Amino acid sequence: MQELTNVNLLEFLDRAQRNALKEKRYHDALLTRILGYVLFHEQKDHVFETAALVGLRQVLDSVLNGALEQQAQLGRPACSFCFKTEPDVRLAAGAAAFICNSCVATFAEVFREPVSN
Ligand SMILES: [Zn+2]
Questions:
Q1: CA angle 41, 47, 37 (to 5 degrees)
Q2: 6 C-alpha to center of ligand 1: Å?
Q3: Ligand 1 mean position to 37 CA, how many Å?
Q4: For 8-50, how does the pLDDT look when each residue is reduced to its tens digit (9 = 90+)?
Q5: What residue segments make up the domains of the chain, in order of their start?
Q6: Å from CA of 89 to ligand 1 middle
Q7: How far does residue 61's CA lie from ligand 1's centre (Å)?
Q8: How far apart are CA 21 and CA 49, in angstroms?
Q9: Could you tell me the distance, in angstroms and rounded to a whole number, from the CA of residue 98 to the centre of ligand 1?
Q10: How far is the CA of 7 from the centre of ligand 1 (A)?
Q11: How far is the CA of 105 from the centre of ligand 1 (A)?
């Protein structure tokens, strides 16, 4: 049985993220990268943690480009992460993207500091 190393794990996450982006499953691509970041962060493996963050930024760029394209097609602003529009969600505008109240809640949970005992 092959030992699961961080190199194997990073390669696996790379493949999963590429496939998700190819199939326009942006939420899955983001979760893949966030999962990698959290795993490597918990292991205190700063090299792989940084690699995961670089991957996350690539996914965010892809998601942003897709969202901007979709907004142009829709003719109205949509969340850059989940593509929902008002009135289904409330939107906040950034420099080149929108985020909705639902995605803010999800990311707040994902990036919440772990409770120390
Ligand atoms: Zn959203």
A1: 35
A2: 31
A3: 20
A4: 988 998 899 889 888 988 889 889 999 999 999 999 999 999 9
A5: 1-75, 76-117
A6: 8
A7: 15
A8: 21
A9: 8
A10: 32
A11: 9
Angle between helical axes of 26-42 and 46-74 (0-180°, round to 10) = 160
The tens digit of pLDDT for each residue in 55-88 reads: 889 888 888 787 777 766 777 888 888 888 899 9
91 within 8 A of 100, measured Cβ to Cβ = yes
Distance CA(36)–CA(34), nearest Å, equals 5
Instruction: Give Cα separations from 103 to 3, 88, 110, 117 (angstroms).
Output: 35, 12, 10, 28
Q: Distance of CA 58 to CAs 1, 44, 62, Å?
A: 32, 22, 6
How remote is the CA of residue 25 from the centroid of ligand 1, in Å?
14
What are residue 76's phi and psi, to 5 degrees?
-150, 155
Both structure tokens of 110: 């994902």
If you count DSSP H runs as helices and E runs as strands, how many of each does the chain have, helices first? 4, 2
